[in-house]
Each structure stands twice: as C-alpha cells, then as structure tokens.
Amino acid sequence: MRTSSLSCVFSCYVHLELSPLHTATHAEAAADRYHHAESKGQDELIQLLKTHADVLNDYFPNKEAADQYQQYVVSIPPVEDYVISMLINPCGSNGTYGREDSIALGYDCCMDRFGAGEYGYKPGSRNRYSDGFSNGLPVPNDEPFHNIEVVDEFGNLIDYKHSRRPEDEVHIDESCTGLREPHSACIADRFAASVSKLFPACWDHNETVDATLDCYTPKGKREKNCMQTSYSQNAYIPLCGGEFANDSSCGTFLEIHKANGSPYDDERTILSDVRLTTYSTNGMQTTTLPLTYKGDPNRLLCSYDEIDLRVGSMVKIKSNAAACCCPMMLSVNRSSRLGAFFCPKNKKFQDGPFTPKLTSLDERYPDDIHQRTFPFCPPFEDGKDVLMCTQERAQAKDIPLDHPGRYFSRQCESLSLDDDSDEFTSNDLSGRYTNVCPLGDAFAGCGISSSPGGVCQGSDQQFSFKDQIGKVVTLPKTTKDKYGVTFNDGRSMYHFARDELEFLKPPFNYEVWFVKRNRFEKIVEKKKPFRVIWPRCTFDNVNGQYFPYAQLDDKGVPLKVD
After folding, report:
1. Model pLDDT, residue 306
2. What three-state secondary structure class fits 275?
3. Model's pTM, two decimal places?
C-alpha cells in the first residue's frame, strides 16, 4: 500500500514535469492564492491599525482627537528660509483710491508687482517688547516725517532717502515759532508740515479700513463689504486638489481674527476667511476678504475698542509702582567682576524679568552655553527669575575646592530684620531699609526705602518697572488681588495694583492670519494687524458692553449708536 502511494506521488510529479500546460495552470493558481492571502493580510492589518490604541489618535482620529489636533500653532518661518508679506487695501480705500488730482489707482494696482508698507513709530520706542509692541509704539498715520521713525514691517529703520513715502506738504502756519513749537506739526518759524495724500500703488493702508464699503477684485468685479488683501511668499504655497480641493481643512488661507479675542469670541475664532489659489507668486497677488462677521450679511466688523483690562491687554507701568534698592548690578561694576545680575540672561542684555521665553532647540542650545559663561547662571525651574551675586573665591565659605574660577555666582541673600535697628538688610546690601521689596520672590534680596523718591543707600542700585511695557496674564479674583503682568511673553509674571497700570489700547483691532491648514493642525506663519474705523459697534444692552460687530437694519445700514 505504501509502495503504491509513493508510486502515485512519483507518477504525478513526473506527469506535472512533462505537462507544460498543467505547470502554467498550477503556477497561476498559486499566484492567485498568494495575492488573495496578501490582500486579506493587508485588510486585517488596516483593521488592526484602526483599533490599536497606539495609533488610533494619530492616523484615524475620532471627533475628540480631531478637535485636539485642529489647534493653531504659531510657526513664523525664519527669514533665511522664506518670507511672507501682506498688504491691506494696497490700492487704497477698499480697492480704489481717489487722489486730489482725480487719478485713481486701479483695482489691479498690486498684481504681479512688488510693494511694501512703511510705518511710523515713536522715536526711541522700538524693540521694547516681544509681543504686540515688538517694533515700538505706533503713531497715527497722519504724523509728519519729523515726528516719527520710519520702519519696515520687521521693525528695521528706513533711511529717509530710501523711503517710498511721498514728502510731506509744507504750508504757512503763523503760529509756529520753531521746531515743534508751539505744536508738533511745526518745523520752523511760520512753517508747518502735514502728510501728503499722494501715496504709491501697492502700499499698506491697514489703519483706515471701512467695513461698510464695497471692494473690487483684481479683475474688476465689485463685491459687498470687503477689502483687498495682497500677499506674496518667495516659496511655493501649499494648495490642495482633487477630492480635497474644497476641504476646509486642507490648503492655505487668509483668516481674520480678533487679536486677544473679545468677551464674545476666543482669539482662535475665524471671523472671515478666503482660500488662496496661487501656488507661486512673482510679486504680490491680490484677493478680497469679506468684512462680514462670521459670514452673516447683516453683521459687519466694527471699530471695536477695549474699554478695560483683560487677559492679553498691553499695559505700561506707572511711576507710582514700587522702586526697590538692590545690590549694585554687575553691569555697573563690571571692571571688578563683583556685583548682582539676574538669571536667566541672554546675549541681548535682557536679563531676568525681560529675558524672553525660548521656544525651540535652536534657541536653547546656544542659550545653555551662554548661561555657563561668566557670570554663571545655574539651572532654575521654568518661570522663575533669580537675583544672583558674584563673590571672590578667597572670601567665600563652604565652597568646593574644585569649583572653577576665582569668582563664582550664588543667589543673593534674602533680607532679614536687624533687631537693633528694626530695619532690613543683608550681607549683599550696603544699606538698611524699612521693608523687603514687594515686587516678588525674585527681589527678596532687595529692600524698599521710605525716603522721598525711594533713594537707595551707599552703592545699592534702584530697580523699577517704571515705563516698561508688559502684557496682562492674570486678573484679580478679589478687590485685594493684583493684576499679573509679564514682560517676557509669559515666561515669568509680576503683580501690580490697577492704579499702577496704564492701559495701552492696541493700535489695531483685528488681524489677518496667513494659515496653512492640514488634517491635524492650523499653522499660523504670519499675522498682519489692521484697524476697522467704521462702522461703530452695536451696543449690547443686556451685558452693558459693545458687541464685536455692527448690526445692519433692513436697508443694510448700521444701527445708530448713541
């Protein structure tokens, strides 16, 4: 029986070997079975991936995961990679700009040509703060040349002879007796200057947007309640096609947002948007942005202004804020290498409360090296500013023998009460003071003086936040609490009473964001501020405050605001 079976197997094998047709049929069948098994395996693997906890949220997000990923991420590209530029109303007021000589700029004045805006800032105020006032304190757009510093959109100073802005108009003013005497428009005896009304094409008019006006597309089509916006990018702009051509989560968009939000909307709320359809630009490209509020044709963006402090408000510290006496700063006494300094520190001499937050590894690596150069900053917990003092090794106690250098850094001593004099002092201070500095833990080594003007004693040096610009990050919960203010974009915080803060109303009330959207996030690569000056916002009688929009009546006219 066994011999017979073997014979059968052998004969079958021989038969297959001797039958080419049968051989081909067998191979095809085997291939079909292989492809079937492969396809089945792929289907099973996909089903596994769809249900596996490790990859569920990354590759197959449900609604909760989608909400988590659909967040805004600010990622401004380095200028060495590529540059994005934007202009508001580049051809004038919402698309056409009538001049005194009756010449109107065409609605396509900023198509395929290069343009730029120039901005006026208060002299000496540039580069004071990293968020909101990064290029200084803006001045009104009708301020003549002799009262401003002219800068580009990055805050770089523009020399007068390189400016595209037309020269000021000079006229006779009998009241003028000299430069800025008796008013700021005066430039000389009997002469004053005013801003020319003649501006070049492809210019930034982001300070005077009227939401009640219509605008024109670059092809001359008139649209309701909108403004022209020009953009350029010296790299390809990501676009989406095929089944994703109309997907709101795919592509590059211009979005209008309320900077820092409002009591009605979060800053991330999209008030209006438009999809970009040009993947490369040679010069500026122009599109139109609706100025309706969230697409409602009966509501328009309005001249919304803040009336009180809230989270995100910009403030200036008044002169009545506490002024404290600290050990002499090392910057004053650098020749002897003895003195006080703040940690963390950076190469731009913005130390302690003014050291900005590090946001990338590219920033952290060189900063870590800088912290370890003299004067040495040891690592501290995030969000903390520390007042450090240097000391000679020969005078130190309890210092390890292997500590490098003759001078070393240590945290300045906190003040303690002297029972004999009922005043506070330390080994690092040369004077005695009535109390410990109230500015926070970072100033535990400083005192506050009761003498007129807060004069410090001996070699002690006065520190004050007076005239510094910061941002409100926390609000008082009770009448006894204070406002939390940051001077470094949220890395650390200090507290002030309301009467110590001057509210700086933002010069602009909206922003256009250049956003690249994908399935998981919205990447903000540029923010362009602008101001809507008309219409006035409708009043909310229920809450006793203004809505962030103007309500239109049946005839399309904004409701009257008393």
Report:
1. 76
2. strand
3. 0.66
